[in-house]
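Continuing from yesterday's entry. The apo prediction looked reasonable, so today I'm repeating it with zinc ion included to see how the binding region is handled. Same sequence as before; SMILES copied from the compound registry.
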Amino acid sequence: MISTDDIADIFKLYSQLLDLHDLDSFKAKNYANASFRIDKLGLDLSALSKDEIEKIEGIGKSLASKIEEIKQTGSFKDLDELATKTPVGVAAMLKIKGIGPKKVGLIWRELGIESIGELLYACNENRLVDVKGFGEKTQSAIIESIQFLEQNQGKLHYANAIVLAEAWKEKINASIQPNQISITGDIRRMTEIIEEIDFCIEAIYTPSHIDAINQFYGSETAIFENNILTLRSEQFPLLRIYYTSAATYINTLFETTANPLHLEKLGYITTENKQSEEAIYTKYQTPYIMPELREGLNEIEYAKAGKYSQLITYPDLKGTLHNHSKWSDGMHSIEEMALYCIEMGYEYLGMCDHSKTAVYANGLKEDRVRAQHIEINQLNQQLYPFKIFKGIESDILMDGSLDYSDEVLATFDFVVASIHQNLKMDETKATERLIKAIENKYTTILGHPTGRLLLSRPGYPIDHSKVIDACAANGVVIELNAHPYRLDIDWRWIDYAMSKGVPISINPDAHKKEGFLDMYFGVCAARKGGLTKDFTFNTLSRAQIETYFENRKRK
Ligand SMILES: [Zn+2]
Ligand SMILES: [Zn+2]
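Holo prediction written out below.
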């Protein structure tokens, strides 16, 4: 049964799609007005005949016949035609506050963006600022609105979830005042996508706790069972609080942190309470294993073999490769980026602006490459001993070739090769395309190998082992793109890469100064994959990496 509200919604959608496709704006207005009127009339259109509807002010013959069609079929032909021409992800962008349908259409046509996730990523890369009719304000409004939508989905990127969890921890501390509290579960394991936020607390439950939590959480349901308080809301991920006594605190924290497979492989049984997680591992004759590694893969054997003594840490990073400046789609100048790196204590910065094929990102044509190199030479004199390496993020074309001639490629200190366009490929095609680029003698680092955007785009399918083998054979480093929406290469493949002797470079892909901080999330993911310091490319010092690039170029 089609209600009057449904009809109003359908008219509104049609009006939006007309604007989105940049069609008859007069017609679009007409439908928008009709939708508004129908909504406000308070009439029951389903009870009225076609003749009666026709006589309503602002409706008329043509709209009345559309209403008739909607009543019978749930839609109308013109709308259906337009809807089939609109990708689902583009239509979904209409939900974003702060941009109307005309702007959604522009984003789609001008930037080729087909989903909300891709749009968010483009905003974070500062790509909307240069599109006509947009500005920094619109861009940040879009980011906010999308993040809100994302939260509504109940799933968060780790980087956003950890901020929320830390804030909630403070609030629980202040209101419930437990003797102890820890974040546990997937967040403590630094899982890249978070669907629930868990805490372990030492406290005695009372129903007033629910009210206290709802001050910030606003749950629709709250259930306390088996000492676990579980709350659900539309706005946030699920929230779970494990109540314990002082005696059981550590065991509960341990049990709720680990992937159940880890407990199984350890042979863990809850019998005696321990005072520390170290003591639990000792009981099972295993060295202490960091929370992020407790996935139930091969971490127990690896820990016993001493493989984790050199696990990468954030302070181990000596510099940062793969970053963008104002020359392409970044927000800051090379100098601003470099000064920030110096402030952070880094020894070098690899600039990798977009290459000429990336027109949407103001990629560098050959003459601008030369001009940028002059600027970098000057800055290197000025900032010595800090070093800016001349890099490029060269697009991997459809056939796997890079988008500059060998003469131009030879002018860079290093080359990051990445796929940005024509992402719809099957596994064979994508793998071949990557391998061709890896075999290019100028490729130094393979950029974000799958092109995934977590929570919005799955990435093209690749045969990871073949790609890693090719990197091993050609001496190519693999990037772990540290942007919290990418974390690509997936940490699950790091162990295989190390077994083949392939180093991993933790690259922030920074498009503004603060982007360097994302390397922290890269380190989190790398540690999950067991990446060691000696296999992390950017733990090399400035001098070491300089030699590496020189040697590689000589070959
Ligand atoms: Zn890229
Ligand atoms: Zn990039």
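Comparison notes:
- Residues 393, 418, 420, 447-448 surround zinc ion (ligand 1) (CB under 6 Å).
- DSSP finds 24 helices and 14 strands in the chain.
Will overlay with the apo model tomorrow.
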